[in-house]
Structures are given as C-alpha cells and as structure tokens.
Specification:
Helix 2 (90-103) crosses helix 3 (116-127). The chain folds into two domains: 12-144 and 246-319, Rossmann fold, CATH 3.40.50; 147-244, no CATH class. The protein has helices at residues 50-53, 90-103, 116-127, 145-152, 161-168, 179-187, 192-208, 226-241, 250-253, 277-285, 304-319, and strands at residues 12-19, 22-30, 35-40, 61-66, 109-115, 132-140, 263-268, 290-294. The protein is an alpha/beta fold.
Length: 320
C-alpha cells in the first residue's frame, strides 16, 4: 500500500481579501515550481490540515490549501458576531477559489477534495473547466435532498442508535422529528454555552459514523477547540439548510462540462455518511473517469485503504 509522504511545513502563507468583509487564509507547501494542486477541506467548516499535504509528492507538487469563509484562520470566523452568513455560499467559495488562483499566479491547477470538498471541487470545476488540469475526489457528496435525509433524517439511527440518541439529546423533544431545522434554529441563538453543547453533539455524531472501525482518539476533538466545532457545525447546518445553493442533481447534470478532464474518484464501500451510490453515479456521468471503490473503508480519507488509493491517484496524475 502507498504510504503518506513525509510531514512538511508551508513555505508561504497569507490572508487574501475576497470582498464582502472576508479574508481567507491560504498556505503553500511542496515544490514552488511543481504541479499546482488545490486541496479542499471538508465540512463545510473544516480547515487546512498538515495531514492533507501528505497526499502529494512534495517534490512534484505545489500544494495549495485555504480555509474557506468563516472557519479556520479565515476572517471573520463564524464565532465572531461580525460574520455575515449571507455572503457565505457555495458560489462565494467558487469565486474565492478563482481569486486565490489569480493571486498565486496559477494558470491551471489540479483539484483535490473529499466529502464537502468533492462537492465544492465539482462546482468549481464545472464553472471553470478551463482552469482544471485534473480531479482527484473522494467520499463523494452530491448535496442532494436524499443525502441530507439519509444522514440527518433518522435512517442512520438504525445502525448507530446510541450515537443517534446523543445527537438528538440537546434538542427539545417536540423538534426531534426535524433535527436539521432544530439545530439551525438553536445555533442562531445568542447563548454561547448552548451553541457549544450543540456543536459537540453534532460533531460527535459525524465523528462516530465517519470511519469503518471506531477511532476513539477522534473524540478528543470534542474537547479541544470550541471555535472549530462551532464553525464546523454552524457552516454544515447553514449549507444544508440551503441545499448548498445547488439544484437537485446539478452536479450530475453538469458533468458533461468536465469532458476531457482526467478524473479519479475514490470511495469507501462502507461509507455511511455519503453512500457509494453517489460515486458510482458520478463515474457513470463522466466517461473516461476512474472509479476506485475501497473494499474495507468508510467515509474518512485517512483510513488506510482510501489513503493509499488517493496517494496512488495523485502520483498517477503527476506522472501523466
């Protein structure tokens, strides 16, 4: 199995003004003269990660990451009352990607992302196919209504009943039939302790279903960084309540725009967050794409089989 590349540090970073009162944090690592790749984080509400750099050969790639609006080191953070969620949508993030590309002097780049990162990567590539040299996507999330119902409508509670009860516990009993709406309402409140409690419950649910095998160490995240949890939960709920500003099946219907772009899709067979059918549908909509279904993996891109498949994919794109 392919092993992660060694840990490396960024050689450049900064804040880029993208308008609407927002500045996004960006960083570069690897070879400044290498193949440009932008590695998108998930969530929404995640952040740039040292682990994500290790998917790429640092001698071959110029690795760009950034924190999307409202999270990570971007300003203002969603925990700041100055953050305006009305200017935090999928299409604002697509525009931010173009501003960042231009700011860094990149003509064309590879797009890499998983889960929400795959959603944003597809939306960006379909708007700007001339700027994309290749796609490496995993844990495909098409942001359809059925996806939201599957993850947050109770179906997964049949597989994870204890975790589902903990997910519902902070909500009023009368609102537990629609947890997404209830979380959205309560997270908009002003009581910080309540918001943090909600963020921990939501994040705990997502962490509990993200890997094929339990990873207890991930639960440490629930006590490590309240600001991160508020951004992760607040932005996921915000985006899902607005269907990510995408029409139903938009990413499949617009797939022909990606014709000729080398694409690798990696997905865990037992991904219960984003069922594998989404990856299969995308593969069928993209003739010529490569689909790798990892037989012993769930949702996370860091499970051994998925990690290895993704490194093989980035190596292959670099060789090509």
């Amino acid at each position: 199995m392919a092993e992660p590349y060694p840990e490396i540090e960024p050689h450049a970073s900064g804040l880029l003004d993208v308008g609407d009162g927002n500045q996004i944090f960006w960083e570069e690592s690897g070879n400044p003269q290498g193949i440009p790749v932008v590695a998108l984080h998930g969530g929404p509400g995640g952040k740039a990660s040292p682990l994500r750099r290790r998917f790429f050969d640092p001698a071959a790639y110029r690795i760009v990451q950034f924190d999307q609006r409202g999270c990570g080191r971007s300003l203002p953070h969603i925990a700041d009352p100055a953050a305006d969620l009305r200017v935090n949508t999928t299409w604002h993030l697509v525009a931010d990607l173009e501003r960042l590309r231009e700011h860094l002097g990149v003509e064309r780049w590879q797009v890499f992302g998983g889960s929400w990162g795959s959603t944003l990567g597809l939306a960006y590539a379909q708007e700007h196919p001339e700027r994309v040299t290749g796609l490496v996507l995993h844990s495909i999330w098409l942001a359809n209504a059925q996806d939201a119902i599957w993850s947050f409508g109770g179906a997964l509670g049949n597989l994870f009943p204890e975790e589902w009860e903990r997910f519902l516990e902070p909500l009023p009993v009368a609102e537990r039939h629609d947890p997404l709406a209830a979380y959205h309402r309560l997270l908009a409140g002003s009581d910080q302790a309540t918001r943090v409690r909600l963020a921990k419950a939501w994040s705990g649910w997502e962490l509990s279903i993200s890997s094929l095998r339990p990873r207890p160490e991930l639960k440490e995240l629930l006590d490590s960084d309240d600001a991160f949890l508020l951004a992760f939960t607040g932005l996921v709920v915000h985006y899902m309540r607005h269907h990510c500003w995408l029409a139903e099946d938009q990413l499949i219907d617009n797939a022909p725009r990606l014709a000729g772009i080398p694409t690798t899709i990696v997905h865990g067979r037992y991904d219960v967050v984003c069922p594998v059918v989404g990856a299969v549908r995308l593969h069928r909509a993209l003739p010529g794409s490569t689909l790798v279904i990892v037989p012993d993996a769930g949702h996370s891109g860091y499970e051994p089989g998925t990690l290895s498949a993704l490194i093989e994919a980035t190596d292959g794109h670099a060789d090509a």
